[in-house]
Design a protein that fits this description.
The protein has 2 domains: 88 residues, Homeodomain-like (Arc Repressor Mutant, subunit A); 115 residues, Tetracycline Repressor, domain 2. Helix content is 63%, strand content 2%. It contains 12 helices and 2 strands; from the N terminus they run βααααααβαααααα. Helix 5 runs parallel beside helix 7 and helix 6 runs parallel beside helix 8. The two termini are 45 Å apart.
């Protein structure tokens, strides 16, 4: 899986695009009236949604829009800056309903909304965000999500750490889920079909006399999930256990 890096281009140009300041690409130059940053970004998202981030290029975006590649550079300096704006754009999709009264419910809702976002746009998991160039949608999302823990009596760094813990689990679980879906698509077999096809061989190899605990637990999990791993179960189980730990932490702070 190809990995791109947020902030991999010129951060100043990315910030100009994200916040739509006047010193962005194309300042002082006249471009096509039917083009613009928003349309180019939407085309990039559509390409990445359909074919993955590896398929994204300025030429591919231009072909998708039916324009010359060079016309894009009036608005967006390059692929790296385009990815920064694509990320911020999809961050704006997360639902922000009125917060539930229970902080556990609020954090669970945030986790599920991010889980859904990764599944709508799997290419997000191919962007390493270690030095993210922060845009308005990312800031608004962060501000809203921090509200879930704003009244728990935690210090600011603790609030950030709690949110990062929940979002980190969500990203990891979503990555496993997306990878399993991609394997199924490329192999033409569901996980359950694959395990059933190899069951005779596996039953001979996994000798319960030699591996008593693994054989017992593996059989129970396989029967419960219909495969070796159920991504949604792992995600939900992890969210609840993390919330249990946060609850203990919050109680200790009081």
């Amino acid at each position: 899986m190809a990995i791109e890096y947020s902030g991999g281009g010129d951060p100043a140009r990315s910030l100009a695009l994200l916040w739509r300041t006047h010193d962005g690409p194309g300042s002082g130059r006249k471009g096509r009236s039917d083009l613009g940053v928003d349309r180019i970004v939407r085309a990039g998202i559509e390409i990445a949604d359909a074919d993955g981030l590896a398929a994204l290029s300025m030429r591919r975006v231009a072909d998708h829009l039916g324009v010359g590649t060079m016309s894009l550079y009036t608005y967006v300096p390059g692929k790296a800056e385009l990815i920064d704006v694509m990320l911020d754009t999809v961050y704006g999709e997360t639902a922000r309903p009125e917060p539930e009264s229970d902080w556990r419910g609020r954090l669970a809702q945030i986790a599920r909304e991010n889980w859904a976002l990764y599944h709508r746009h799997p290419w997000m998991l191919q962007v390493a965000a270690g030095r993210a160039v922060v845009g308005p949608n990312a800031i608004a999302k962060y501000d809203y999500e921090l509200g879930a823990v704003a009244e728990l009596g935690l210090a600011e760094v603790e609030m950030d750490s709690v949110l990062s813990l929940v979002l980190g689990h969500t990203e990891a679980a979503a990555r496993r889920s997306v990878e399993m879906a991609q394997v199924e698509q490329r192999s033409g077999m569901t996980d359950e079909q694959w395990w059933r096809a190899h069951a005779p061989l596996l039953s001979r190899l996994l000798d319960p006399q030699r591996y008593p605990t693994a054989a017992r637990v593996g059989a129970a999990a396989g029967e419960a999930h219909g495969s070796a791993h159920n991504p949604e179960h792992a995600f939900e189980f992890g969210v609840q256990r993390i919330l249990d730990g946060i609850e203990t932490f919050v109680a200790s702070r009081r």
